[in-house]
From TrEMBL:
GO cellular component, one term: cytosol
Record-level GO BP terms: tRNA threonylcarbamoyladenosine modification
Top-level lineage group: Bacteria
Classification via Pfam families: TsaD
Gcp-like domain: residues covered: 30-143
The protein's name in its UniProt record: tRNA threonylcarbamoyladenosine biosynthesis protein TsaB
Length: 226
């Protein structure tokens, strides 16, 4: 049964589908053009893999945290496609998907939240999946929650934007960084498949997003101070 996944939480557009040969994913750097490019790129991916929308049995998506606009666009597209087909949806944390992209077993997944903040969570890979070592939160880089122990790999755009501050905060706990990694639909789909199989999918109207904060932008006075 083919499944689809997408992520629009960053400046990348990421899509993936299951095929008999495994998961096929594609990623594009699109800036803020998710609304106009997601469906055309999806059509290309389906054609490439010999699928049509009527084949899809469920849709997984990165449900945050991330770009407010990007998340809403992605969720809206997922709801529209799923409602039209009468199929289930499944939201996957973008931070967990980011962790899934790493080869390490102890990961600090960190996304640039703008406004001098980061979205962050720490994960430990176990036999049955990822365990949260610190819960997802939004914070100042200097106030990042510290996981226990050393040997942590820092990944994601948060380390690209605030690498020095995060390195100072983590000290010897940080074993290395891979700031180029981002949440990808292929990892979202890998995480979602066993959850779909366990019956965790929900109807389109129940698809929800995780923002972690309500404030979208700084006021002019706050930007000046920053």
């Amino acid at each position: 049964m083919p499944y689809l996944a997408l992520d629009t939480s960053t400046e990348h557009l990421s899509l993936a589908v299951t095929t008999p040969a495994g998961i096929v994913g594609r990623d594009w750097l699109v800036g803020q053009k998710h609304a106009e490019l997601t469906l055309p790129r999806l059509a290309e991916l389906l054609a490439e893999t010999g699928l049509v929308l009527q084949d899809i049995e469920g849709i997984a998506f990165g449900n945050g945290p991330g770009s407010f606009t990007g998340l809403r666009i992605g969720c809206g597209i997922v709801q529209g496609l799923a409602f039209a087909r009468g199929i289930s949806t499944l939201g996957i944390s973008t931070l967990e998907a980011l962790a899934q992209s790493a080869s390490a077993n102890k990961v600090i997944a960190c996304l640039d939240a703008r406004m001098n903040q980061v979205y962050v969570a720490a994960y430990v890979r176990e036999a049955d999946g990822w365990r949260e070592a610190t819960a997802p939160t939004v914070c100042d880089p200097h106030a990042l929650p510290l996981p226990e122990g050393e040997g942590w790999l820092g990944i994601g755009s948060g380390f690209a934007a605030y690498g020095a501050a995060l390195a100072e905060r983590l000290g010897t706990q940080l074993a290395g960084i891979e700031p180029e990694l981002f949440p990808r639909a292929a990892e979202i789909l890998a995480l979602a498949l066993p959850r779909f199989a366990a019956g965790q999918g929900v109807p389109a109207h129940e698809a929800t997003l995780v923002y972690l904060r309500d404030k979208v932008a700084l006021k002019t006075s706050e930007r000046v101070k920053a």
